[in-house]
């Protein structure tokens, strides 16, 4: 399996992730790391990042970790907790790790942290593997 090719495919073909400035840095079976710098446009009326920023980053990391198994997958459920607010200019990192993998259903955990290691959000994601290979 060529993980670099899958990572490049994910970065190139994730239109929503591109729009948000999310980039997958590392990928392996059941593992992925995605990053994003918080922009002013990501802030809500309280001047902190909208919760969707953290969620989208974590979901992208988990989806990428699933893609490293070689097939497409979709999120079917998630439990997500927002723990602390970042600020504009902060660089966020989401690391996803598989907790349990099966032939059709897999459970992953994502942790969204800042550069100083502070924990901003954590989530448990359930994915369904599709019988569609990664690629065009």
Please give a handful of descriptors for the protein shown:
3 helices; six-stranded antiparallel beta sheet; 136 residues
Would you write up a description of this structure?
- The structure is a single chain.
- By secondary structure, the protein is of the alpha+beta class.
- The protein contains 3 helices and 6 strands.
- A 6-stranded antiparallel sheet has the order 1-2-4-5-6-3.
Note the topology.
Blueprint: H1 3-13, H2 15-20, E1 23-28, E2 31-37, H3 51-67, E3 71-82, E4 91-101, E5 105-113, E6 119-133
Mean pLDDT: 94
Strand percentage lies at 35-45%
Can you count the helices? Answer: 3
Largest sheet entry: 6 strands, antiparallel
Percent helix range: 25-40%
Structural class: alpha+beta
Which stretches of 5+ consecutive residues score pLDDT under 50?
A: none
Q: Give me the side-by-side strand order of the main sheet.
A: 1-2-4-5-6-3
Find the count of extended strands (DSSP E, 2+ residues).
Answer: 6
Distance from N terminus to C terminus (CA atoms, Å) equals: 16 Å
Radius of gyration: 14 Å
Order of helices and strands: HHEEHEEEE
The backbone outline, from C-alpha atoms, is: globular
